[in-house]
Amino acid sequence: MEKLLNNSNFNKTLVKTSIIFMILVIFFGSIIYQSTKREMIETLSILLDTALEMNVKVINEWIKDKKLDSRLLASQPLIKKNILSLIKLSEKPNVTSQTLIQSPELTWLRKSLGSLSKEYGFFGFIIINKNGMQAGA
Question: In a 10 Å sphere around its CB, with 0-12 CB exposed, 13-18 middle and 19+ buried, how is residue 96 labelled?
Fold first, then answer.
């Protein structure tokens, strides 16, 4: 055994074999790493796409529910009457924001819709006339 270790040809062969073996391990390891990395990226991409689709569906359903809630509230006779009256007032020439703020319609809407907004999970309400101007909030 000692003769083999002292033999320079054996040592050269052992070193060459070790280097070739390490090169093969690194080569095949990098192929496996790249393949695994690619699979993980594809899997994560599919999972993220699925999560995004589900989030979009949930948000769209939430929006649909909130629109339905707001239509339901706006269709209530007293609420509708006060909204229409406030809009009509806002479209009068020379009407000021102070006039709108102090109007009985907006006062009533703030009182009624204020509590309903909290109940339905709204932040508040805004009324915009056909000219695109805010009539009340």
Answer: exposed
- Within a 10 A sphere around the Cβ of 65, how many other Cβ atoms? 12
pTM for this entry? 0.57
20: tokens are: 């070739």
Q: Each residue of 23-53: pLDDT tens digit?
A: 999 999 999 999 999 999 999 999 999 999 9
d(CA 20, CA 36): 24
Q: Are residues 116 and 135 in contact, defined by beta-carbon separation less than 8 angstroms?
A: no
Nearest to 105 by CA among 72, 69, 137: 137
Contact assessment for residue 85 and residue 104, using Cβ atoms and an 8 Å cutoff: no
Does residue 79 contact residue 112 with C-beta atoms inside 8 Å?
yes
Burial class from Cβ neighbours inside 10 Å (0-12, 13-18, 19+) for residue 70 reads middle
Residue 125 in 3-state DSSP? Answer: coil
